[in-house]
Design a protein that fits this description.
The chain has 301 residues and is an alpha/beta fold. The chain folds into two domains: 7-148 and 225-298, Alpha/Beta hydrolase fold, catalytic domain (Rossmann fold, 3-Layer(aba) Sandwich); 151-216, no CATH class. The protein has helices spanning 33-38, 57-66, 83-86, 91-108, 120-131, 149-160, 166-177, 210-216, 226-229, 251-263, 284-298, and strands at 7-14, 20-27, 41-45, 71-76, 113-118, 137-143, 189-192, 206-209, 237-242, 268-273. The strands form two sheets. The protein has an eight-stranded mixed β-sheet with strand order 1-2-4-3-5-6-9-10, sandwiched between helices. Strands 7-8 form a two-stranded antiparallel sheet. It is globular and about 60 Å long.
Length: 301
Amino acid sequence: MQKITKQRNLLTFTTSDGFEVNALLVTPNFGTESELFENPIIINVHGVLGNFLARGTPQILPPALLAKGLSTLSINTRLGFLGQIMGDGIFDKSDQDIEESIKVLVDMGFKNIYILGYSLGANLSVYYTTKSKDKNIKGLILEGCSYSLPESQKKRLERNNSIPQYEDIYKRARQILGPDPRNEINDQIFIVYRAWGDTFNPVDIEMFTYRTWWYMRSPEAIFAKTCDLIDQVKVPILFIHGEIDDVVDPTEPKDLMDILQKKGNKEVELVYIPEAKHDCMENPEATIAAITDWISKKNPS
């Protein structure tokens, strides 16, 4: 029987609405093809920048998991490539990118699929999972997951006394987009000063188009309000969160976990990663241990 050797393959596939997803498939050595497809594989869903641009979790998680014998598929959704600035990063449509990734893996033969969402990708992964009924999805791993993307930004902008302020952005977005935010014709790029800190330095600014902001951060962004959706998730969930996260308050995953448990989902765990901020891979040993231990419990030998 032919042994399956370690692979690193670039893949490109197209969603039903025509978006082209770029992905990296990484698999370790397996004794047989059957072992490859039956063992867990993790789909990595990035934050704002995309898996091929960002450092930290998107870059160093796949090789770390490979060393533990786990396969990964790192996908670039339309929220990557600075999609929130270029206008393609519409949160409501990005679930299609995960959906197509699942289809590609299932068509290959994979049967034991987990989704790991990092930061913005965690909120997107929750949104996708509330809609999906694919039985090959065995669980979610949510890293740095915000309680609600609109609420999170609103609090942050208020804390930093941003220019413009949250309500001003909302009013301007309604003026620019008109009665139909799906219309791309009037969309514009805008800058928020003092979005991430109380200075006017470039590191503290944030950029969107009004349409990408509307569907991701505005009061109308219903699918980005994870707190209102997560009780619909029926698969097991592992939250991993930096103990000193400076972007998403460490209480937020606990609040989401409480919602799930009250709804009856008892297969929920929360692990705080010591000495890690928003990117849990600032402490790779603890992060990899949390992921592999949880997956091992879900897949006993």
